[in-house]
Design a protein that fits this description.
CATH superfamily: HUPs
CATH topology: Rossmann fold
Number of domains: 1
Number of helices: 8
CATH architecture: 3-Layer(aba) Sandwich
Radius of gyration: 17 Å
Strand content: 5-15%
Shape: globular
Largest sheet: 5 strands, parallel
Number of strands: 5
Strand order of the largest sheet: 3-2-1-4-5
């Protein structure tokens, strides 16, 4: 029985990868379009689990890309998205701490500590932006995740009229760390005391459903300033 379950899970994982394996092959055109449309009110940056010591290469790439977009005037603000999912650290807070150390003023950093999956990053990040009064919002992440969430973004547009543009990382990810700096932060402020990993809270199938956007609350009202 255990072997059968493992095979089924592996098959589901392969299916998920097959649906999203093709990355965006020309991120430069998205960046060029963003330059023409700028400034965006905010870009959403999806989180990555933090090990308590230092960020990994994926989080480093995403945060540096968002900081670059802020410095270039493409985005006026940054919404960091991600809760304490696999580790006791709120991913959004960790990324915000790094961004602030890289020079982004605190007043331009906002947090969505709810999202636990990529689809939820774009959904709850967009909701957070709308609650802040932002109307021009984009997703800033690596090319693989941009492709993964693109179809869900279209679904948000159909159901909610949400417009979230894609601004995938332009830098060549094969170039290693690209010489990007790693500032020092105090991660203790982002640590959750009463933490239970999603691996213990949810079954494999529920997590898979979350990855596909099955757990978002479509009917939750979006509260905007003045309402």
């Amino acid at each position: 029985m255990q072997k059968v379950t493992t095979r089924v899970r592996a098959g589901a994982f392969v299916l998920l990868l097959s649906l999203s394996a093709c990355v965006i092959t020309n991120p430069q055109k998205y960046y060029a379009a963003a330059q023409e449309k700028k400034p965006y009110d905010a870009v959403i940056v999806p989180g990555v689990p933090f090990n308590g010591v230092s960020w990994d290469s994926t989080m480093k790439l995403r945060v540096h890309w968002a900081v670059h977009l802020f410095n270039e005037g493409v985005a006026r603000n940054i919404i960091f998205s991600g809760g304490a999912v696999y580790t006791p650290y709120v991913e959004a807070e960790i990324m915000s701490l790094y961004a602030q150390e890289l020079g982004v003023p605190t007043k331009h950093c906002f947090l969505d500590p709810i999202a636990e999956h990529s689809t939820e990053n774009i959904f709850y990040g967009w909701k957070k932006g709308r609650e802040l009064g932002f109307t021009r919002i984009a997703l800033a992440t690596d090319v693989f995740q941009s492709k993964m969430t693109k179809s869900f973004g279209k679904k948000m547009r159909r159901r909610l009229g949400a417009q979230v543009d894609m601004i995938p990382v332009v830098w060549d990810m094969r170039s290693g760390n690209l010489g990007l700096s790693t500032p020092t932060i105090d991660p203790g402020t982002a640590r959750v005391d009463s933490f239970v990993s999603i691996l213990e809270r949810e079954s494999f199938w529920k997590r898979l459903g979350g990855t596909m956007g099955k757990q978002v609350d479509w009917d939750a009202p979006v509260v905007t300033p003045g309402n």
